[in-house]
Amino acid sequence: MATSFPKDRMFxxxxxxxxxxxxxxxxPFLILLFREAGQSFTQxxxxxxxxxxxxNVLEIPTGVFADIFGRRRSMVMAFTAYIAAFIxxxxxxxxxxxxxxxxxxxxxxxxxxxTHKALILEYLKQNNLTHLKIDYYGHTRSASQMGSAxxxxxxAGIVFYTGNYRYMFLAAIIPYMLDLFNLMTYPKTLDGNLQxxxxxxxxxxQTKATLAAFxxxxxxxxxxxxxxxxxxxxxxxxxSKDYLQPILQTYALALPLxxxxxxxxxxxxxxxxxxxxxYLLTSYASRxxxxxxxxxxxxAQAINRSFLLGAVFLLIAGLAAQEHWAIISILLFxxxxxxxxxxxxxxVGFLSDQIDSKVMASGLSVESQLTTILMAILxxxxxxLADAFSVGIALAIFGAGMIVLLTVxxxxxxxx
Length: 416
Fold this sequence. Notes:
By secondary structure, this protein is an all-alpha fold. It has 17 helices and no strands.
């Protein structure tokens, strides 16, 4: 079914933002990078928790900042800080300095999270296209996933050529500089209705209004469940997805391929190819989120069933990894990635029906904050379980935990 929204200049700029943002060359190798630097799975979990706690602490203040001073300015600050974080990661290599870089990275995530989605939704509102938000956001997100696919191949090439993971941090500065320029030149109208004087009184009034809307989300059962459902799935997914990397590495080293190369280069080839395939498919999944939703009676049903399916995938992926059935585990991780990228446009569309558009940046930041709380709790637990038992057992336990969580966060379709 053809889309009916205009693919104008802003559509391509929104798409370019996502494409360039996802050229984080280190991401397909982050756990392996930390492991090479001598970190245990527990320490890696702690580093993830440090990043998420830093994001969490700054999430609401930066959402308020975006609503008061402008979403574009918030995004520019985020990307400037990202570049600084990449430099720290490249220059140093011990736990405490990694922790410092993770704090900086968390600050970037806080400034960015929810804000660009709010820019897109503001554009759709101004152009009377809000009824197409799932399809439109799904297509712009598809460009992000295509960026991740290209990212995987470039990252593998960097590792294969240099034999060193750390150069990927330097390489990532280039696309982030391009994205910074893209964001700086977005139209000012996308900031929405901002206070013009920025006096203490006006800032205080806007802050009070934003926090009041934030509090209202937690008094509205549908909004609260929608936030928890989205954040719950993302928390478990983001907390576990990088554990595909050691599974891929073990499988790659067991194959009788490139045996004259060192282990880093051998595993880079398979990891790059697998992540390339994953993100090609997730790009397709994002474009077809609206079509997926139409297969169900309503968006709520699609959200609930995809949550359950993701939990089952993670549970079986863990059990398969434990039994050394690597192919099954890899395929189920692929399924998790597809579900996350189908669910994301569905969740954004569903949440936008629950949250006042005037505080959409803060509302989506609340969702991100809940996600980071979960990730900060789950990441060290998953790392400790992986050290105590195995990666497979840890993942299976997490899959079971998702099934239990669904009983609490099942969403309901609002009456028309």
